[in-house]
Structures are given as structure tokens and as C-alpha cells.
UniProtKB/TrEMBL annotation, chain A:
Family recorded in the similarity comment: Belongs to the mitochondrion-specific ribosomal protein mL53 family.
Signal sequence, start to end: none
Listed GO CC annotations: mitochondrial large ribosomal subunit
Residue stretches in coiled coil: none
Gene3D superfamilies xrefs: Glutaredoxin
Compartments reported by the entry: Mitochondrion
Keyword Ribonucleoprotein: yes
Gene: MRPL53
Transmembrane segments: none
Protein name from the UniProt record: Large ribosomal subunit protein mL53
Entry keywords, A to Z: Mitochondrion, Ribonucleoprotein, Ribosomal protein, Transit peptide
From TrEMBL, chain B:
InterPro entries: Ribosomal_uL10-like_sf, Ribosomal_uL10_bac_type
Gene Ontology cellular-component terms listed: mitochondrial large ribosomal subunit; nucleoplasm
Region annotation (Disordered) ranges: 203-228
Protein's UniProt name: Large ribosomal subunit protein uL10m
Source species: Terrapene triunguis (Three-toed box turtle)
SUPFAM superfamilies per record: Ribosomal protein L10-like
Family affiliation: Belongs to the universal ribosomal protein uL10 family.
Amino acid sequence: MAVPKAAVALRHVKSVMVRFCPFQTNVETTRIFLEHVNSKKARASNINCVVTTDVRHDGSEPVVDIMFADGDRLIMKGANLTAAEMLSAFNSRCIAKDLKAEEKTKKKGA
Amino acid sequence: MHFERQKLMAVTEYIAPKPAVPEKCITPYIKAVKEENGYAKLLRWQVVETFRESKMIAVCQHNFTPSEEMLLMKHRLRKHNIQVKFFPNEIVRPYLSVSKYKNLLPLFVGFNLMLVSPEIKVKEMLRILKNVPQINLLGACIDDTILSKQGVINYSKLPTMEITQGQVVGTLSLLASQACALLQHSSVQLTALLDQYIKQQSGGAGETDRKAGEGQAELGPAKSSAGL
């Protein structure tokens, strides 16, 4: 289970909501994702980002709901995903948004 | 060649000795028994002790917390005799699978911490954990009962033991007191009615006496005037 060491950058994220039921067996990857999102560097990259954790006991599947600053929403159902997949999906979207922002600034500058 | 010579040559042909089977193939490969790390033994002993002594064990997921906040939280919990313990999952899981806490196994995944205490002080613990958003309560084992987070919140809202006992005693004695009241109801009502009647009578009698007294006073002077 290779977990990338690259820090999670929460620059473009408005809020993260993680919901899981800890007594189930398929929540490991979601919990690992949550730990990465709550890491020191991630917190430092965006202080305004709100990370909420919803711990329930109703047998529902683990869900990660990320609201981006430009209105996009990423919902990941972690029951059958590995932590690496979740992080790479999230990181790829962050990088795409970075590129968009750079293009915008270039256009404005030019 | 002559047949006899041929036979002799065949019989006395050099047979090279077979190479001996190397030892590696014969002796079975004995895996050296890895002796357990002394530190692991100590941790396991500590886990057993912790589970045996504490009545309340809460398992929380530990996301990164700055050290000052962690220190403050530990200090506040210590005031209520709640200790914060960290154990590696590899040591806790085998112990749990053997002991009676089997259903806590799925909780011990990732980075956790345990809050243990010989007393049960759920409200204070929940209040302190609310101040630290990075620590999420996953579940607890209070008095040999495994509770989820919602269960812990419900438990904290329950009244204390004395109040509950008082309520139970009150409910049990309610039946007897109701029966008593029902039996005495008729006689009590009769007594009250009679009291009311007596009051009315005494009030009415007082009025008639007063009137009789006035009438006599009138007759008196009349009689005396008649007598004169």
C-alpha cells in the first residue's frame, strides 16, 4: 500500500467532509486519506479550509466530499478505493486548477 | 575381443562414485525462532494491564495536533484522571482478537489514541474533545459495553445513578400509594363534606342567634311598655 509522501495541498479547497462508520472493515483507506488531509503541511497550506469528520454507526459506506473554492465538488466513495488512488485523484484535480489559475493570471497580465 | 576378456572388462569397468548428496538437501531448513523484542513484550503487558484496570476506554482517531494543544488536552484530561495512551496497532490487535473486546478490532486501523480511565466521566471527556477538532471519537467501551459515538453522547445525557435509583423507587412505590389513596378516597371525601356542612351550620346558627337576640331585645322593651 504505497502512500505518496507528497503533501496534500488544500489551496483550492473550501471544505472537506469525511463521513464513515468506524466499526466497518472498509474504512481504512478513508481514514488514511483523512489523516493526510489533516496533516501539518495540509493545514498550513490553507487555514480557512474547514475539515469536518462525521462519525456514524449506521452501516453507511465511507464518503469523502470536497468542495472547491470555484464551486466544484468531488465526491469519493472510499469503500473500494485505495488511499493512493484517492490522493492521486484529488491531487490531479488540484494541479488542474493550479494550471487554470496560472493561465488566468497570464491572460490578465498579457 | 575374446568373450571372457569382454566380460571381465565389463565387470571391472570403473564406476565413478556418485557425488554425495549435499547436506543442504538432506537437513530440513530450520527457521531460527525469532525471539520477541523485549520492548514488544513490555508494550503487550502494558496493554493487558490497561484493559484490565480501566472501566472506560475511548478510542479516537488522531490526526495531526500541534504539540501545545496536545499538552493542554492531556493536562485537562489528567485533572479528571483520564490518561492518554498510544499503542502500536500490531500489539493491540492480537490481544483484542483473543480477549472479549473482539468487536473493537475494526477500530484499530491507522493512527489512534486511547483515553483510559478507572472512573467514568463521559461529559467532561466529551467537552474536552470538542475543543480539539482534530481528534475524532470513534467508539468507546464503558463498563464492558461497546458504544459508538452516538451511544457515548446518549450515555452522557443520562442522569446520575442516584437520580435514576430514586426514579425507580418512586415508580415502584407509586402503585402502592395510588392503591392507598383510592381506598381512603371515599372516607376522606365524606370527612371533607361533613366539615364543610358543620362550618355552614355554625355560620348559619351564628346568624340566627344574632337575629334571635335582636328580636328579644325588641320584645323586651315592648313587654316592659306593655307591663307598665
